């Protein structure tokens, strides 16, 4: 197949949406498909364009067999709601020259658009209409719903406009998919889809990300003793997780020299977290940059407890992607989730982590105490077993490819029927 992907994030970003879209593109290319992507310069989660790409204009490179068309765009130093909107629309405008070439060039068999940002679905939708190409719209989170629930956009008229744009896109897609059962239900509740929303979960390469002994972890490199208890958060430092709780919990353990907190990552919320650490004069919290993918198993093996936190208002609007790697590494995850949500139900059903109430310092501290004093072997074993059974990269992407091929076959049948 000739496949076009459109996503603001792509490899070599190490976390978030770009990681999964990059792996998907590379996997499809390995199966013999011709894959192109229109994307931006890598910037996430640091919110700073990577050094290699700074100052670059429009250009094309090849990554793992995928032709990657890069666009320059606006990346704010400090992320606010307004600046984020400008950031996202700047990518849409910057990508127009590539879309003009696509419109005038040879027809693609399918277009895959990955959201967020949700509004980038407009250009693929127009291309789909003009060239009669099936559009697959994949939702990594429900951005407009989340902006409303988190109070990021308070103007009701503007929120209604965003929902109208989203509705326009969703109604015209051949396939809409998302990453959890709860999100599938929320998309279905919009009552605009021409066909049922598909579940296309995030995956993990369970052969690469696997349990390692403590001796193979990063403890020696970081100067951490084997007896220290390490609480780890790794990933994007954004708004939807409520990460200030980590610093409040660290304050509670300030006099415990054997308990330390590690924060690996970057994002719009990092400055505030660092300010809190300085204000409380804490010495038990250390910040580090994200680690290369090949060191991820070693990083995960460093921790006694892994934190997977999000706010109540983000329930079933986003599913923490970091959880897949934690499960594959056989980690003990401390997960904040609301009962009845997909995240809560999956963790509870498979007994693969410790569940706590979101946005509660007391609940977080109680969860940490539980994880550090009880035998967590069962959680770790269940986590690894779940990852191998349900999150296998090859199995999930094979199912995705089959659906793409089915979509192509359906289009060919319609074309032949019209011809007859």
UniProtKB/TrEMBL annotation:
GO molecular function terms noted in the UniProt entry: hexosyltransferase activity
Domain Glycosyl transferase family: 218-389
Record-annotated Glycosyltransferase subfamily 4-like N-terminal domain positions: 15-203
SUPFAM superfamilies with a match to the protein in the record: UDP-Glycosyltransferase/glycogen phosphorylase
Listed Pfam families: Glyco_trans_4_4, Glycos_transf_1
NCBIfam families: PRK10307.1
Annotated protein name in UniProt: WcaI family glycosyltransferase
Organism: Spirosoma validum
């Amino acid at each position: 197949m000739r496949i076009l992907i459109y996503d603001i994030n792509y490899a070599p970003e190490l976390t978030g949406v770009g990681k999964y879209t990059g792996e998907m593109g590379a996997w499809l290319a390995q199966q013999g498909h011709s894959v192109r992507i229109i994307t931006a310069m890598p910037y996430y989660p640091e919110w700073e364009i990577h050094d290699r790409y700074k100052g670059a204009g429009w250009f094309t490179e090849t990554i793992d067999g995928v032709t990657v068309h890069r666009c320059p765009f606006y990346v704010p130093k400090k992320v606010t709601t307004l600046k984020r909107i400008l950031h996202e629309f700047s990518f849409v405008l910057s990508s127009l020259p590539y879309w003009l070439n696509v419109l005038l060039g040879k027809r693609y068999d399918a277009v895959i658009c990955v959201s967020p940002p949700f509004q980038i679905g407009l250009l693929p939708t127009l291309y789909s209409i003009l060239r009669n190409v099936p559009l697959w719209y994949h939702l990594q989170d429900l951005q407009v719903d989340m902006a409303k629930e988190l109070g990021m956009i308070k103007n009701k008229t503007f929120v209604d406009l965003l929902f109208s744009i989203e509705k326009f896109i969703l109604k015209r897609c051949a396939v809409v998919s998302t990453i959890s059962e709860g999100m599938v239900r929320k998309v279905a509740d919009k009552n605009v889809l021409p066909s049922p929303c598909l579940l296309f979960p995030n995956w993990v390469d369970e052969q690469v990300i696997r349990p390692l002994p403590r001796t193979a972890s990063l403890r020696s490199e970081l100067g951490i003793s084997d007896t220290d208890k390490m609480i780890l958060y790794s990933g994007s430092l954004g708004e939807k997780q409520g990460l200030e709780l980590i610093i409040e919990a660290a304050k509670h353990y300030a006099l415990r020299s054997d308990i330390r907190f590690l924060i690996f990552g970057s994002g719009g919320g990092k400055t505030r977290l660092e300010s809190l650490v300085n204000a409380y004069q804490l010495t038990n919290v250390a910040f580090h940059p994200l680690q290369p993918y090949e060191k991820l198993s070693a990083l995960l093996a460093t921790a006694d407890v892994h934190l997977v936190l999000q706010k109540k208002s983000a329930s079933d609007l986003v599913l923490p992607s970091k959880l897949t790697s934690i499960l594959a590494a056989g980690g003990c995850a401390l997960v904040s989730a609301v009962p009845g949500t997909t995240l809560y139900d999956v963790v509870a059903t498979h007994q693969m982590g410790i569940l706590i109430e979101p946005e509660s310092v007391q609940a977080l501290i109680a969860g940490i105490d539980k994880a550090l004093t009880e035998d967590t072997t069962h959680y770790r074993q269940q986590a690894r077993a779940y990852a191998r059974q349900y999150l296998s990269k090859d199995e999930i992407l094979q199912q995705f490819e089959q659906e793409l091929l089915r979509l192509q076959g359906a289009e060919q049948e319609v074309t032949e029927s019209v011809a007859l």
